[in-house]
Design a protein that fits this description.
The complex is a heterodimer of chains A (124) and B (146).
Chain A: H1 2-20, H2 22-35, E1 39-44, E2 58-64, H3 73-83, H4 85-89, E3 94-100, H5 102-107
Parallel strand pairs in A: 2-3
Antiparallel strand pairs in A: 1-2
Chain B: H1 2-25, H2 30-38, E1 42-46, E2 48-49, E3 52-53, H3 56-67, E4 73-76, H4 81-91, E5 98-101, E6 104-107, H5 109-118, H6 120-127, H7 133-145
Parallel strand pairs in B: 1-4
Antiparallel strand pairs in B: 1-5, 2-3, 5-6
Helix pairs in contact in B: 3-5
Chain lengths: 124, 146
């Protein structure tokens, strides 16, 4: 039930953002073109934080790409951070990354947990 | 007129520019961070303090450290704007929290979580002479079974 609820909420958010998410779309297209992602989720988690409605400040990305093959976790994260450098410098405040190779993705349960609850540090 | 303009306006323009730049990028000197990260085997840069984290991601790292009973230094970047920028520049990593083990940048919240789940964290801690409480607990329950 809680999983259904959770995915319901994130789907709701995803739908809302697909209407207005400029940054979300940029993130999506950059990751698709640079990493040739086999699977990609860009989830706007800003609603969980103390930011205005419709804000694009907190994201989670789930990227499945062959380009991660042979790279350590930290190198995968650096790669994604680097591709999204501009966004991170201009308003994207939090970026949670799940980076897997297609093989790892197939072997996983494909359930991506939602990020931890906000503790109010942003907007200080 | 032109000269006058240049002398009166441009210097202040330049100063403003410098001021902005110093606010944006100055951070704390690399040497200071070098000292901070070498002061303990595990050092965490976070938002808030371990007893009262002010960000869910920082809180997750604190909880992981607690589970493994890791002694560590923590630094609150919310109380020091220069440190907040400085640490990002130092490790070339755009977000907080940041965890250092043995003076080396290990990762942020996502990486710590995955290392915790895969058991890699226990190994990394072992390398620097810290025995995870989870390992101790596992050994104890094994002993009891015997």
């Amino acid at each position: 039930m809680s999983i259904a609820l959770r995915s319901g909420i994130s789907n709701f958010c995803r739908n809302m953002c697909s209407m207005s998410g400029v940054v979300e779309n940029t993130i999506r297209s950059k990751l698709v073109s640079t990493l040739e992602a086999k699977h990609l989720d860009v989830i706007n988690e800003s609603y969980m934080h103390n930011v205005p409605k419709g804000a694009e400040t907190h994201f989670k990305v789930v990227v499945v790409s062959d380009k991660f093959d042979g790279l350590t976790l930290i190198k995968r994260h650096r790669l994604v951070n680097d591709i999204l450098k501009e966004e991170l410098q201009t308003g994207v405040h939090a970026l949670s990354i799940v980076a897997k190779t297609p093989k790892q993705w197939e072997e996983s349960d494909k359930i991506v947990e939602s990020s931890p609850n906000c503790k109010g540090g942003f907007g200080k | 007129m032109n000269n006058l303009l240049r002398r009166t306006i441009f210097p202040s323009y330049n100063n403003t520019l410098k001021l902005c730049r110093s606010f944006a990028n100055v951070g704390v000197p690399k040497e200071k961070i070098d000292t901070l990260i070498k002061n303990n085997k595990v050092v965490v840069f976070m938002k808030g303090v371990p007893d009262a984290p002010r960000c869910g991601f920082s809180n997750a790292v604190v909880q992981i450290m607690r589970m493994h009973a890791v002694p560590y230094d923590s630094h609150d970047v919310l109380s020091d704007e220069n440190l907040r920028q400085g640490i990002k520049d130092y490790s070339n990593w755009p977000t907080i929290p940041q965890v250092f083990i043995n003076g080396e940048f290990v990762g942020g919240c996502d990486i710590m979580l995955q290392m915790h789940q895969s058991g890699e964290l226990i190994e990394e801690l072992k390398k620097v002479g810290i025995k995870s409480a989870l390992l101790t607990a596992a050994e104890q329950s094994k002993e009891e079974k015997k």
